Amino acid sequence: MDIQKLVSAQKHFFASQQTKDISFRKNALRKLQSELFKREADIVQALYNDFKKSEYEAIMTETSIVYSELKMAIKNIEKWNKPKKVLPSILNFPSSAKIYSEPYGTVLIIAPWNYPFQLAISPLIGAIAAGNTIVLKPSELTPHTSTIVREIIEAVFDERHVAVIEGGVPVAQELLTLRWDYIFFTGSVNVGRIVAKAAAEFITPVTLELGGKSPCVVDDSASIKLAAKRIAWGKFINGGQTCIAPDYILIHKSQKDAFVEAIKEEITLAYGDDPEQSSDFPRIVNTRNFERLAIMLENENILIGGKTNKDDCYIAPTLIDEPSLDSEVMKGEIFGPILPIISYETEEDIATIIGKYDKPLAFYIFSNKNRFAKKLIQQYSFGGGTINDTTVHFANHRLPFGGVGESGIGGYHGKQTFDTFSHKKGIVSRGTWLDVPTRYAPYKGKLNQLKNLMKFG
Ligand code: NAD
User: Fold this and answer.
1) In whole angstroms, what separates CA 413 from the centre of its chain?
2) Closest to 103 in 3D by CA, of 427, 428, 419, 429
3) Domain 215-402 is in which class?
4) Cα(404) to centroid of ligand 1, in Å?
5) Where do you find CATH 3.40.605.10 in the chain?
6) Which of 11, 125, 265, 312 has its CA 20 to 30 A from that of 344?
């Protein structure tokens, strides 16, 4: 496919103003919705083929999230797009003022492999709702899902409106040499840096949805059984390959033994005595990632799990006891089913460990002390989080989802995805029935009048 030709065709199509029409956008979203419903079984199968993701998790964490975003966009698109009236400034009297949402133009979305369907289609929905033309590049590491995504988009859209370009790093690199009106990237911090540099060339605005080492603090008042259940779920869902998975546990010393017992029980309850036999536990996406993770298990004190099978890219749900902060498992984001547990005694201990890492994408606190939980939320900078649960803040599309510092720039979900893909244009409309002369030269004798006016401005 000639990428430059395609992008140029999209730019022409955008310039034709057709995507500015709300019924055009709504229609496009409705068509996408019905195609997705039609292809649901294929999507589920593709996710299984890519990394043995179960049907249940495919529906819970991929298709249903997309359906909910679609439904919300279709229902609210008029409201979101309507110019918002704001109070006029007295300095402009007489006038009215409004904020208009305008589509950026031709935008690029680059998606990762870990939720390869949802993280490609969710931003796409907002980009369509906002009236852009879009090129979407799914991850090459989940080829079955990438193909389904392309087939669905090809069945629904004129490629001048929305197109999928499949491929790996060279394709992504080629895409990044082009001039886009917006780039939405989800992936690793390192590639995020590459995207930001490429965007800087044309002053292209970006959203970067990146990763990080998300802590999970369990204090001395936490309800241990429930904490263990919710942490095991949030950590081992998708085989631990979740950007907002709890990366490591910081637990009050007094709770550690009970927690280890409780999480052991929860893992067995969820996946049986041998999780390798469980149809609910996914595999690591490829050998490279398997090897990256397997190294983390070396020379560590393994409390639970630890079993691996390279032929099937399997790594058991694993708990690592008190790893050194310089160890492989504590160096960077784990992004797999390995959970280190580190005990603390004082709040200073927590601060020392969290302070070692960049601002994380997520933060979790298990505590029955409200003040303590609130204190931590205010003390540390992170993308978003949950008190007494893990990952579920992602599911509320009224909350902005995104990182801060090295975990990302910008946010999305629900209306915020529409806003992310829209430039906000401030417009003042002046009345013509009066023209206050204060601002016009000659200025002599008008300074006091100006000063008085500025007091109200
Ligand atoms: P990745 O950065 O390796 O790849 C993401 C995308 O970038 C892929 O489409 C890939 O083809 C492309 N890419 C890879 N190398 C590139 C290069 N040199 N130049 C241009 N493009 C390139 O990330 P991944 O392994 O697919 O995903 C895992 C990472 O993504 C983790 O760090 C995880 O935390 C993060 N993530 C973040 C979110 C979020 O919402 N913040 C969601 C999912 C994953």
Assistant:
1) 8
2) 419
3) alpha beta
4) 17
5) 3-210+407-424
6) 265
